[in-house]
Amino acid sequence: MAHRSIRARHTIDAVEAAYTLDGTDAEWLARLLETVTSDLDCGAGLCAFAARVDRGRFMVDGPGARRALDPHFVARLGALKRNPPSALLDELALGLVRCGGFEQRLGSAHPVTRHFRAAVGPAGFVDAFTLFAQDGEGFGLCVGGPSRRELFPAERTLHVWRRAGLHFAAALRLRRKLRATRREGLRCEALVGPDGRVAHVEGPLRDDVDARERLRAAVARVELARTAGVRRDPCRALELWAGLMDGRWSMVDRWESDGRRYIAVHANAPEVADPRALAPRERAVARYVALGASNKEIAFALGMPIGSVAGAVRRCASRLGGHGRADLIGFDRAGVISLVGASERLEVLRSEVAPSASLLAALSDAERAVLTSLAGGASNAAIASARGVSVHTIANQVYAIFRKLGVQSRSEALAKLLGPETRDDPADPAPAPTAPTA
User: Fold this and answer.
1) Bigger pLDDT: 266 or 431?
2) Residue 275: pLDDT over 90
3) Residue numbers of the domain that contains 374
4) How far is CA 422 from CA 56, 69, 313, 352, in A?
5) Phi, psi dihedrals of residue 382, rounded to the nearest 5°
6) I want to staple 389 with a disulfide (CB 3.0 to 4.6 A). Which of 61, 227, 368, 393 is the partner?
7) Which residues pair with 48 in a beta bridge?
8) Percent of the chain having pLDDT more than 90?
9) Closest to 222 in 3D by CA, of 192, 200, 247, 190
């Protein structure tokens, strides 16, 4: 029996909890679980953990946290961790943010769903809600919990949690920067009062009047999102509160000894290495495109206008010798070769990415042809015209392609299709997404 137990009533509370920087990582995860329990717990508890996703490997990073996790589920964790399918890494690593139940997102025939049910089905569990968001630097945060019934949350609810998940990932990245600068302290580039008055400014913001004005406007939007009336509408609240400000900064509450509250502004852009031809913000955009994110998702995650994202995608593709979005899909799996000559050093981006034969095998000849056109950036109307069929027919084929690949967008489809064929080292299998180390 399906049900809709997943809600989105306390997402702003959860985002606020995520940006609380004090305490250990385990304490931070425990606070986060406390705020999301009433919305995400399906009756068997929740767990959360950070993970490293790096060149075909998925590894739990640091301690996890559990909240009221059902002991019968805990007893089956060993079976869940044992020999997970390689499709698990596809599901988590080849997307900026994943959200939903296994049955809803993947279907009962998917290897991940089958593995989950074989491992924990004997204890009565048939599904699990999982939210996994990547931070753009090779790390991600997973929040999830098992269910004894199939889960089919409303798309509006999933949309809200996907956006909240991008905030969780930004907070994870910020905490990692905090650890790296523990001795000297995390640099605060501005202190802004809730009324928009700038009490302190340094770094790039000091001499950039326009950026300071955008900062004041961003603070005003965040303060509005946190009001009692607006936070009751999480869709609207998260339209106001983007993942970053100007693709560079995160905003965190800071309380002074006299009881006054300020918004502390910290540099928190994803740091993506190479290629040298791209500016820092372009590297972040290219990284998110490689993870299958749409322009709209990237605009939210980086706090950039969608037009600026589209322009950055075009520039990235052009500077890397490509023609469009599809040429950026292999960006995060590319390597840099250094060629050293007598008088200079030349760094060349080298990417060896081939379509996954196993995924292509699931598609019909017509669907493969349509997917090829999609990869080239063609619209449904253009594909229909070229193939001599109706736009409705192409739309149905695109829907079938997305369903077979387990994706929701063109970018996701390309990211999954162009992913490495084999990812797991049998000697070191990846842990299951709902099995943290607590």
Assistant:
1) 266
2) no
3) 357-417
4) 8, 32, 28, 14
5) -65, -40
6) 393
7) 65, 143
8) 51
9) 192
